[in-house]
Fold these 2 entries.
Entry 1:
Amino acid sequence: MTAEPITTPRLAIGPVLYYWPVEQLRAFYEMVADSPAEIVYLGETVCSKRRSLNLEEWLEIADGLAARGKEVVLSTLSLVEAESELKTLRRICENGRFLVEASDMSAVGLLAGGVPFCTGPTVNLYNARAVETLARLGLRRFVLPVELSRDTCAALRAACPPEVEIEVFAFGRLPLALSARCFTARAHNLAKDDCELRCLDYPDGLIARTQEDQPFLTLNGIQTQSAQTHSLLGEIDEVAAAGVDVLRLSPQSRQMERVIAAFDAARRGSEADLAGVAPLGFCDGYWRGEAGIAAPAT
Amino acid sequence: MELVCPAGSLPALKAAVEAGANAVYLGFRDATNARHFPGLNFTDAQIDEGLRLARGRGVKVYLALNTYPQPHNWPQWEAAVDRAAALQVDAVIVADLGVLDYATERHPDLPRHLSVQGSATSYEALRFYHERFGIRRAVLPRVLSLAQVRHVIEHSPVAVEVFGFGSLCVMVEGRCLLSSYATGKSPNTCGACSPAEFVRWEETPAGRTTRLGGVLIDRRTAGETAGYPTICKGRYEVGGKTFYAIEEPTSLNTMELLPELMALGVVAVKIEGRQRSPAYVRDVTRVWRAAIDACARRPAGFRPAADWSAALARVSEGAQTTFGALHRPWQ
């Protein structure tokens, strides 16, 4: 692509989608604080049983990151069912200090018409009228649903209110589905309520392969992700040209510092590569309007 | 309690109406609804005929407009809402915020239901849709337990419909992209999960393989029945074992829970299966009509009759049925 980037997109660190112990989370956000990423999303979005940090502790990390110049956003649970989950959700939405990223329509409902807010990849905004509808209620930025293409992204940019920013999921295993059931517990023949917190054993999820050994999905508790790592590093000029304001890098347990550095270099027009960062391979088909699993052109 | 039955075609609509449905739901013959399969759904002339048939028997007609338009095809959804209003259907079943906003502004008197594809799992979400778009009813995703359904209903500003019978989505509807990960097409974008043009069946020495978009979903030996290859019902290798890593191929059947569902105040039970045959619709509608009537007369002693269960088992996908999330043995 020869198109000149219109603006240099900012880098955002998405919420950690896995169950990491507290020391690992703290070390991760220490690294992030010193990184060139401008935005950091914090909080538990997958399973309310994961409690390495409570809300107060998340807010302490948020304060620390904010003090080091980061824009901090609090992300909410993607699948909200229980009253206890609504209670936590209300506390997050009413935190009064940080922007909130709604991950489902319960959060959108609590935020709408009150404070400015963002939406994450599990809130469905597929067209300009949907975006405008939420913009009237305070939407400031949204993550493009991961299955949408560059053409749809560019069309949305052209049609949506200019003050609403577009963020694109640019790196990481794709969040594909949510269930009330826990597939990590199922893989261990455990009931969900008695899961023994097995997700702690899989800092990057549990791989499901086809019967001919093709890596296909990642089981992450109640969430199903791609096994392949989605990356738009090679298309970063095109992403910027489509009017994308923010690139989301979804955390993985290893080499995340290198991932951030690579995207930082690429957005500034320097050479960058991610060799060895995704042991099960890369994909970028969704961005090109194909099956999400399709591998990048070499 | 209303019995809401699938009408994927005019013969299926007739079958549902004659077998005792209180309402039927159907879609236009395009991607504006979540059962956009070849040969299915209604032309305008067929809808006219269907409306006439249904209204003659006092049966309501709901129109599913429950997929997610994108900028390039948005006008088609606007036109679909306008057609639905002109046809004076009893309600449109909508998922997308933009479509809801358009329908609310342009046709305020056209009743709106929130589709299961809208993915609202809490009463806070229902409050939002009610306040902003005046929805009258919401169809809950098949992921909630009975206790959770009760809690939603107790706090919901709108009537609640649940799925009673048919294929079971184990993933939260409206937010499942597994199909497009393998094929590029999903229920949200194209109105179909695992579209048929991406399915390949092959006989191999190792068994019958089913592929979706080239990805091996399952391989079966002689004697094993092969279901439709949705990704969630495939067998994969996880941690050295090969098994149904996500979901056994079972069907949803909540008939035994009817007394509880009635007591909770569920206003309608939906039968899944617009892609199924008129005979399926007739058999399932007939059995559920009898069950709802029997339960309404005497909820305390309600038990599904043996011949009802047998009739439903004959048409179920997979060998067994489940209450789905309503009852959670796996929880």
Note: The radius of gyration of chain B is 19 Å.
Entry 2:
Amino acid sequence: MPKIHIPTPLRQYAGKQPAVDVKGSTIGEALSGLVSNHPDLRRHLYTEDGKLRAFVNVYLNDEDVRYLQKEATVVRDGDNISIVPSIAGGSST
Amino acid sequence: MLNAECFFSKMATLTETQPASLTLSNDEILRYSRHLIMPEVGMEGQLKLKAAKVLCIGAGGLGSPLALYLGAAGVGTLGIVDFDVVDYTNLQRQIIHSTADVGRPKLDSAAEKLKAMNPFLNIRKFNTRLSSDNAIELFKEFDIIADGTDNFPTRYLVNDACVLTGKPNVYGSIFRFEGQASIFATEEGPCYRCLYPEPPPPGLVPSCAEGGVLGILPGLVGVIQATEVIKLILGKGDPLIGRLLLIDALAMKFRELKLRKNPDCPACGKNPTITKLIDYEEFCGIRGEEAPAEVTTDEIEVEELKQRLDRGEDIYVLDVREPHEYDICNIGGHLIPLGELPNRVNELDTSKEIVAHCRSGVRSAKAVNFLRQAGFKKVHNLAGGILAWADRVDPSMPKY
């Protein structure tokens, strides 16, 4: 099964797991499976009209799916799907 | 790599325009001997380092190791931008500052340590908040910008100013125990907006004060940034252009994702729409977001809570912090972490008076809002949280 890597800021909504196995033959199916199993993740990944949020990037192995077939990108067993949100910590507080 | 070569040739031109004035004294040769005996650096490389001008944005978590290593390496001119003062809680990770510096401007503290380590450095201090009014003029005076800031508006500001001035942006960012590093805004490579066209809505991604950060993490990422700056100056190795390095310090795993230049990017694409700097606070939606509007009528002060508890009143004190915070200090409240509240709301009695608290009053304000919407009428937020309790009711209580 493909694996989805959950970034730190979102792990609290995915049962504190760093990675989750999912079913699905496309990126879209894999992400739907993820938010069905972990509904708290939905608002962090999707807008109210069901679009993937712009500050969240999804990678299949090391390629951004925006440059592949987006949510229609085919996934296979052993593939690594990464969710990469923006983080900004750096300097002070 | 095409990306790297374009930049390397620019850097070579930069240093070639001032060869005669740039030499290394005997002291410098001895100081940098471990660089000079490496073929990857040598006299030629060390002179490039001396000729280089790097601007470090932020003298905090990332800026500390970044500036220290660039200074040690002999980067001739180091600019530092920081308007903040050293805070006691910074010392867990901002290693350029010491206990004696608490209360002093970070800029002064950083500049002193750098000069003490390497008197040959030309340190330029900019005690200012980077803004749309000053960024362009400032960036023009440097060759490379290293972004060590801690908020989204500044990240976008730095990116856009780098694209508009043609300066590479050596980027690093951290959260808890994860980090990212890359180089943005080179001519052929992507910029920050190619990766993240939009910032997250405010409140969705916590800051270090709310989320915490492993002290070593900015050290790890800051030195990666310093490494990339030096590689760009020397024209050696494979820089992180078009590559996003993801660091998980707990797993000690490093992964890499490919970054592409977005041809439709509003900043660096074929038809850029960003031709000057904008209002970044507005872009990130944080104007006027600071004070939660509902707080005033639902608040209770720490003195009042103390008096009412002492009188034996039946008040349910709800602590919405995390278990490890409860271990640091607590006022005997019932612990239901904020994230678990929706699932555990049935543990609360709507007929009882509830006072919610957290560390400083921000999370508990959200809890109060949530409970009111869930139909709880008698809920109040403890203004200032357990920090206010430690300040005004029980000074023996530790603050964190």
Note: Chain B touches chain A through 52 residues (CB under 8 Å).
